[in-house]
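Hi R.,

Here's the chain you asked about this morning:
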Amino acid sequence: MVNRKELHPDSSPQAAYGARVRRWREDHGWNQEQLAAAVAYSSQHISAIETGRKPPTLPFARAVDLALGTADSPDSFEREWREMRRGSLLEGFPEYVAHEGRAAEIRMFEIGIVPGLLQTPEYAWVLANTAVRRGAITPAQAEERVSFLADRQAALVRARPPMLFVTMDESCIRRPIGGAAVMDAQLARLVEFAAMPNTLLQVAPYEIGERRTFDLPVNLLTLPDRSVVAYAESQAQGHLDRESVTVLPLLTAYHQLQAESLSQTASVAMIEEVRKGTP
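And the predicted structure, written out as C-alpha cells:
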C-alpha cells in the first residue's frame, strides 16, 4: 500500500472510471503489475488511468474487460467508456449517430465549417483544440470528440455504403480553419469525396441570398425501412425528430436548397478556385 494515492471519483467521469478500474483490480487480488501484464500495458499506464491522469481508450477498455471478465456485460468498461465519451456531446446526437451508421441515405446541410463526416483529422483537431482553449471542453473531451468522429466516418465504409448528399454553405469552404496547409488538405478531401460513386456534393453560394432554406445545420437520414429522421442543433443542444409531420417539410426544404445550389461540377470548380486563392 506504499504510495497509494487517494482517488476522488466524484471529481470527473475520468476519475470515476479510474477508481472503478482500481476497485475491480483489487477485488481480483491483483496489483498494478499483474493487471498490466494481463492487458499488455505498462504498470505506469495503469497507474495513470486509475488516478485520472490519463484518459482511457477503447482498446484499453476492451483489454480490461477481457482480463477482468466483464466483456459484453452491463458492468463492462467498454460500456462505461462509451458513456463517458458521449457525455461531451450534445443531447440527441449519440442517438442520431446510431441511426446514421445504418442509414441508406444521408443528407446534410452545414454552415461555417465542413461537415464532420468530410473532415480530415487535422481539421477536426483544430476545431477541438480551439474549444479547449476557450474552456468549452477539456483536453480529454477533445480527444473523445475526434475519436468519435473517426468512428462515425469508419462506420460508413461498408459493403453497401449509404448515398451521401452534402450541401454546404459557401462559408464552409471560404472560412480559413487551421492555416493554409490544413485548409488545402481539407479542400482536397472535398474534391475526393465528390468523385466517389455514392456521393453528391453541392455548394450553396452566397448569391442565393434569402433562397437558402435553412439557417441552421440539418441532417436527414433515410433508414433501411425508408422512414426518415431529422437531426438539427443549435449552439447549446441537439434534437432528433422522427415525426413525419415535421420531418417531411425539412426533406422538401432540402430538395429546394439543392435546386438553388451549384451543381456538383460547378461546386468542385469553386472549391478548386478557393484552393488556388482565386476570389
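DSSP finds twelve helices and six strands in the chain.

Let me know if you need anything else.
M.
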